[in-house]
Amino acid sequence: MAGLRETKRRALRTALIEAARGRIEADGLDELRARDIARDAGCALGSLYTAFDDIDALILHVNSITLAALGTMLETAAQTTQAPGDKLAALASGYLHFAAGNKNLWSALFDHRMPAGMSVPEWHLQEHAVLFIHIAKPLSTLKPDLAEDDLAIQARTLFSAVHGIVSISLQERTIAVPVEHLDAQLRDFVATVVRGMTSA
Amino acid sequence: MAGLRETKRRALRTALIEAARGRIEADGLDELRARDIARDAGCALGSLYTAFDDIDALILHVNSITLAALGTMLETAAQTTQAPGDKLAALASGYLHFAAGNKNLWSALFDHRMPAGMSVPEWHLQEHAVLFIHIAKPLSTLKPDLAEDDLAIQARTLFSAVHGIVSISLQERTIAVPVEHLDAQLRDFVATVVRGMTSA
DNA sequence: CAAATAAATTGAACATTGTTCATTTTATTG
DNA sequence: CAATAAAATGAACAATGTTCAATTTATTTG
What CATH number labels B54-198? Predict the structure, then answer.
């Protein structure tokens, strides 16, 4: 049995990631505790630190899973329609519904901060690209004579705008607005932007 | 001297707020520590808790000051131009420059979270309105036949979009883009939205 | 003004965290 | 099977927000 060690190591890592994921999903990133994670994963507190450098590394892995799920969701959302403006609306709407339906996991993507001095590792930075890349194609159809780097920049800008709307809407600092109202507003906004892009 | 108590109490509160503000401005919300605040304010650790319920109350007061400064800045930004589209562009640009020039204080407005179970007090929620209210007037000029509540909603939506762009741009997860580049992109985006609103 | 009372100040103590470490257990290797 | 390397364990540590009993300071009362 060459690799019992490695097998157990991998099992512990995924158990810890799943435990952290469950906690974040249920109670939010703020309530995540090392001791709870270890208990849920069925290991001692110290073992968490043989499997991962620290809690932040664990959170990055949870966020990795969330980004992957978001990615496949956006992928299919973009396929439901044909016209580029409709694709952008569908992407925005899909993003809203994902965020609303996975609030704590989605919030963790943007609320998490590395400890002072540390920066997000490159492999995870690249995973964040999934947030924009689906926007680029329909956008380039709308604005065919856009240079490649401008396209990337404008895709990121459009994502950021949609994200801002979704983000502040879901904050629910006062009363909760039904998601379908938000969806209507968001689609209206995207339609306005698309109109602005194509007029003039 | 009726009120020496009250005088000292007020002095301590402002000293603590200023100490917290200085720390947040210099090192960011994440590095804020009760012991540092007390030392800077020249009082014992325990005194912080006779003047404020907890650290969160202190942070709210710091954010209050930041929102007031942001408010007067937006006020003057809106006055620099006449046409509603230009006013909206000026507001967005002003917002970007404020955020870029007061990064830690501005970030604290959105990064701060109340402890579990607690919610932001009403007086402070209302102060956040300063973020949208300046948008409503030019927006109503652009869309004269908008109902009052729709106007408020769309002003909030437009703010959220601009905030999202500014927010993600300033995150600087990779390389820092010059503010004037961001400003050009942001103004371009606002112009697109305005065009989309008026073409129809 | 002096004594009594109320409030505020103080820093030590407490509770909760993330992380480390010496010890023990477990897998791998020779 | 013995020797070694790796991992598991939970007690201990350090940092942090908050509380508390004791002390000092301001106000009120006789």
Answer: 1.10.357.10
CB distance from B121 to chain A under 8 Å?
A: no
Q: What is the pLDDT along chain B (200 residues), one digit of tens a residue?
A: 458 899 999 999 999 999 999 999 999 999 999 999 999 999 999 999 999 999 999 999 999 999 999 999 999 999 999 999 999 999 999 999 999 999 999 999 999 999 999 999 999 999 999 999 999 999 999 999 999 999 999 999 999 999 999 999 998 776 778 999 999 999 999 999 999 999 86
Q: Retrieve residue B127's tokens.
A: 């102060």
Q: Of A197, A182, A190, A134, whose CA–CA distance to A161 is shortest?
A: A190
Which residues of chain B have a CB within 8 Å of the CB of A162?
161, 164
Compute chain B's Rg from CA coordinates.
Answer: 20
Tell me how many residue pairs between chain A and chain B have CB atoms under 8 A apart: 92
Residue ranges of domains in chain B: 1-52, 54-198
Question: What is the CATH superfamily name and number for domain A56-198?
Answer: Tetracycline Repressor, domain 2 (1.10.357.10)
Q: Are A16 and A49 in contact (CB under 8 A)?
A: no
Chain B closest CA to A154's CA: distance in Å? 8
**Whether the Cβ atoms of residue B64 and residue B127 lie closer than 8 Å to each other:** yes
**B43 beta carbon < 7 A from strand C?**
yes
| Topology, domain A1-52 | Arc Repressor Mutant, subunit A (1.10.10)
